Amino acid sequence: MTARHFHASDCAMEQPRTANLPSSGRPSLPTLGVWLMAALAFGGGLLLRLASGQGLPLWIDETWTGMIVSQPDWASFWREAWLDVNPPLYYALMHLWTAVAGLSDSALRLPSLVFVAGAALLPILWRAPGLSREASLVWGALLILWGPGIDISLDARGYGLLLLLSVAQAIGFARLMASPSRARAFIWSALASLAILTHYFALPLAALQGLAFVWRHRARALTCWPAALAFAPGFGWLFIHLPRLADYARPDIAWYEPMTLPLAAGHLRYVLGQPGWMHLALVAAALVATRLASRGPFHPARDAATEKALHMAVLCGVAALIVTLGIGLVRPSMTERYLVPVVPSILLGLVLAIRREKRAHLGYILLIAAFGAQMLDTQKLRTRLEARSFYGFEQASGFVGARGAKRLVFTWDHPASHILDAGSLAKLGGFFLARDGAAVPTQAVVLAPGDNPNLRLRDAAGNEERSAIIWIYNRARNSAARTHPPDPRLWSGWACRHDRARWVGVLACVKATPR
Q1: Is the Cα torsion angle 274, 278, 283, 284 positive or negative in sign?
Q2: pTM (2 d.p.)
Q3: Separation between Cα atoms, residue 291 and residue 117, nearest integer Å
Q4: Which of the residues 110, 215, 475, 515 has the least number of beta carbons within 10 Å of its own beta carbon?
Q5: pLDDT of amino acid 254
Q6: How far from chain centre, in Å, is Cα 17?
């Protein structure tokens, strides 16, 4: 076989490659320093999550998760999963999990914590080709310390699973690029398909990785075509889900901000770990300090194939970030959480930037310290988590439940509510009461443009004693509460609780018992 000719079966066989073997003897002091910093990162990251997540009520998106996964049978589950905007893999796993663990706030959130911890451990347990043990430890440490990862590990949503699958996909892609085989192609394809079944914004990264594989290995990659069958579940569900996704794509349903340069800069900071600029300054300082301490070029002997594979994994992540931001520029259809699929590749890029320097161990320590600095401000993290949980109605449900509500009228004052199924909204509104064993008949009200929710909800509830309403709203865009906020004068004779912040709030009222 020459450089230009090969047999088609080559893709079915593992190709030989060189590996970076750990040095013999005792580890050096710099190596021990990296291991110690990584251990502190993992221990501190887990402790921070356990301490910060205590007592937080579910926010509205987590309540959607609870409603969908609590369906009594698979037929009802698949109907609700199809009606939702997200793919079904996370919901299906949670449906199985909650059948055993229950629907408490802790039970709903625990899988996300496990997924994020698994994402951080995966680079150590399943190492990327050509990446040393120390570099793999640092990659894992950055993942456990990645700021938004703390939030999603305490969130009963699919982003923890998406992060885990995206790390596995990055490793699988690097292994495939370094040494193509049908087995490796199938593993990468299966992981990419599962990521797509978790979130549709995993599609740009999978597409770019697939194109990179074909471009880099050309005919050799084409002989691995059977591995493409692993995409059948992902694209099969997407085809089934397209009619419903078309509803969410309507221009009048969009609730995200149009992409601007400041917003794009915020998304970039999100990918690198924090919404503020200070974190980026610390990361940049770690890179610069390592470069200055290294004093000169460093050219260690490394396998060319694995080096190209690692760099291609990072380049695909950067390209996917650009494409995803471009999608948001064309149409307001994304928020920063949708960038989770590219995070592992971007963080790997930081590790590779340090790895090329002569004083890489110093850089590893500084980089972990830069990411770990956020752990010092635990109050800021708690405030951020409380602000997210504020946009929910668990406490409002407790308020109407404690007052013996016999009937509930519920509305979610949000642009998406116009395309939501009334039955789904009713299940959402009554989720907490049903979970607490005090299920009551629930009616969902979908507000029309120009409606005054005070009047609509009061009229729908009627004058029956212990009728209740819950009105959760977001005044940022296209909501009725923007023009008709809760008016205490219209709720005379009702016992009410009104929790509100600048943009969001929830009003809960129960028709008072006449004396």
Answers
A1: positive
A2: 0.92
A3: 31
A4: 515
A5: 65
A6: 34
